[in-house]
Amino acid sequence: MNIATVGLDLAKTLFQVHGVDMQGHIVVRKQLRRADVLAFFAKLEPCVVGMEACGSSHYWGRELKKLGHTVRLISPQFVRPYVKSNKTDAADAEAICEAVSRPHMRFVPIKTQAQQTMLSLHRARAGLV
């Protein structure tokens, strides 16, 4: 497969993948179980992987970077305008793939595990206060 950009929609058990080539033609559109995600991306040549920024996207971003992919996290508010039809996982993955390819898109930096741990401590403290 000659995939240039992948949109990955994260969920609890089933992840949706939408991949396009350099010309924008759809190359892959499939559903993956959580356990199969790393094996799928390990088989791919390094490409740009886009995800909506959330708590688990930082973990997946770190794991996919280890496999050599370029990972870009996008705030969900910037993905929403690219959803073409009803909100489904497949439509979200396609919208993420489209948004990642935009030249002036703003991306969220991937947090390290220590940064995420510190954020959870701050949130727990704020809840107690």
From TrEMBL:
One of its GO terms (biological process) is DNA transposition. NCBIfam families: transpos_IS110. Residues 6-129 form the Transposase IS110-like N-terminal domain. InterPro entries: Transp_IS110-like_N, Transpos_IS110. One of its GO terms (molecular function) is transposase activity. It comes from the Bacteria. Pfam families: DEDD_Tnp_IS110. This is IS110 family transposase ISCro5. It comes from Pararobbsia alpina.
